[in-house]
Specification:
The structure is a homotetramer. The first copy, chain A, is an all-alpha fold. Chain A contains twelve helices and no strands. Chain A is elongated and about 60 Å long. The structure holds a DNA duplex. Chains A, B, C, D: Keywords: DNA-binding, Plasmid.
Chain lengths: ~220, ~220, ~220, ~220
DNA sequence: AATGAATGAGTTTTCATTCAT
DNA sequence: TATGAATGAAAACTCATTCAT
């Protein structure tokens, strides 16, 4: 389980001292973990400082206030999640296979970087106040939509897919199908007795891919 | 103050005094609003008391501590969401139409009772600690799964649907497709510039229903 | 010496508990002492709480924040200084004697209630930000000006005083002559080696009265 | 932040580097402004450094600690105010005119170098702890008393003035009459609705001079 | 001579919770 | 059944001061 609010050992970094960049990075990482584990109101600057291996004043020096730390952490969540998306190569794959690969990639992403979903949930609970003000929307824009657009074009070209499918809307379907089981794993376990583990999630991804591929097939 | 105290609609109740049941109910409703609006850590007992029109000691008298208020509110969220689910009558509908109706019903549910999604998000952010301990799982179990089971049976019988589709897994698909666009409306707006409003959501529901119906069709 | 920043024993009050009015009054008194002794920035809410015999949260509950406590203390300083001014009866006195009495009264006031001068100094150092916003200007308006007006009228009538002397401007002369030696006693001692004690201050008041009476005499 | 950071005019110096004397002077000037604007407790070493255009460690290197910076600034206030006092030439003037000139000189001094009054207020609020320890009392001793002594002598000689007037006590009268309206300008505005501006102050000075000259006249 | 990096020890403020009636 | 009065414990944030270069 990834999002447990208990031990939070988050091993204290060993860092070279008097290294502003390093300190800032360490704070950001600790903040990301803290906010995703405890939410905005539940996060503690004390813990961020401790886990980053710096003093609290340094954090305030670099970021300003808790809200600003949170904003930086939210942006960092997007930046980190976007890293790696570029490496996903769908060009060589048969369009239906590309869809399946993308679904699995997305599910793995959510599964393996649970702080991303936590940050999204936290931010949406807060009404999106922070992301709305975030500079640099480019950095948080997913490249997956573009990859998807190209897959859809190839599929439409060779007759495997319907034409005129909006890649954003399709991506939202994919994200929806991967997001919910990961985000709501605790309530799913409690309410539906689902064994929400890696294998189960991968099976869900596979089934979702089936559904999506059928959905894309021409009538 | 850190958390923007939104409109604070929740107009203070006018209640007859010395009405234990009424007080308890009022507290529960105020708590549900409070926790869904601010999350577990962000919720304030003061505000709950004010919005419920009672004193803080009374809340502690009835519930014990903040955690217990939260648990009661979480349960209340499920109880309230389950209300009305029973009324949904799918028996008269052609199975594909029943699926479509169920998808719309779910989307409307999420859309119109936003505190439900907020509570689920909050609880999952907290690692499901509370729901795991919640007594009376029956009360939080959705009847939609049973309705779905019967629709699937009818569909399989008359050849419109594949057989051997697990109603829980199907329900999770439906929930996923409805949950994500509502839950993540703020980030969707910011990142994908989606106009997340009622009409848009209904269109998403319709499209999702198309996809699901195709998915259920026999190969 | 009155304004010493050292011991501040300010004996902790013995108060009956659960007495909101009493608590509020106690806080106000402690705040007045604290702010006048240490200035706005130097004042400590901790000390106010301790000297008032209440907890810090109670202070915040009643007043809001440090700035509001300060504003209340400033107003209280004026209210307390205005108490007693009403009792001063100049009507029976020969106008020159009335002037002399008023000067001594003012000097005594400043001398015996040193927190008043301290609060004025503090507020003026802060640019008057707080007094400018203070509601209830009536409460801080001195009745001495009115008393002075009547004395001046009597004096003009019977030929002892010039006519057309503005009572406000005269009062400012009186205040100036009493204020400076009290307010600046420490620097006067250090720079001019003045023995600024009660006797010396009373002699200054007497001399000032001489000067003022001459000033008022008709040419 | 509590204290409104006023315009922060004090434009950051451009200074040649490695200039010990220049740095020290810059720090002193910035400190004088800072302490007079915010008082002892309200002053911030950060701001002094920034406005002086140097780093904080340099300040500590040169002065020791905040208390020492304050002491230096207080002394500097006296030194700066004493500059120019020497140039005032009263010898050529008829004694009454000399008195009037001295009053105006004093009023202008206070009016045009407001940090002096602020520093005096600050120091007196602190109980004179610092000035009492200040070395070099000569530097802070006003020459005006000596000038006054000579004017009084001339006046007494030619019969315009009474004899046996103590120049220190007279100087305190003058200072009192000029100090109060400048020092308390904000409260005077708020409480008495006085239009405390340059013209008003000059009129007060003129009126004060009238009063003092009468006071000095032989019975 | 000078400073960027860093922090210990506060200080204001908040909040769940209890006391006394 | 109900609450006004009150607080311990902790949270965010600040600031004089020092370290390492």
């Amino acid at each position: 389980m990834n999002i447990k609010a208990k031990p939070a050992k988050a091993l204290q970094r060993v860092r070279k001292k008097r290294d502003a960049e390093g300190s800032k990075k360490a704070i950001l990482e600790a903040a990301l973990i803290e906010f995703s584990e405890f939410g905005h109101a539940g996060a503690r600057v004390d813990r961020i400082a401790k886990n980053a291996g710096v003093s609290k004043p340094l954090i305030y020096d670099y970021f300003g206030d808790k809200e600003a730390i949170y904003a930086a952490a939210l942006k960092e969540a997007y930046i980190q999640i976007r890293e790696g998306e570029g490496e996903l190569n769908l060009d060589q794959l048969n369009p239906p296979d590309a869809i399946r690969a993308l679904v699995h990639f997305t599910m793995d992403h959510f599964r393996l970087k649970p702080w991303f979903i936590s940050m999204l949930n936290t931010e949406n609970l807060r009404g999106g106040d922070t992301i709305r003000e975030l500079r640099g929307a480019d950095e948080i824009q997913s490249v997956l939509v573009e990859k998807l657009r190209s897959v859809l074009a190839r599929g439409a070209e060779n007759g495997q897919f319907r034409s005129r499918v909006d890649p954003v809307e399709l991506y939202i379907f994919i994200a929806s199908l991967c997001y919910f089981p990961v985000s709501n794993k605790h309530t799913l376990r409690a309410v539906f007795k689902c064994p929400v583990d890696d294998a189960w999630l991968e099976r869900r991804a596979d089934e979702a891919a089936d559904m999506l591929i059928r959905y894309l097939a021409p009538a």
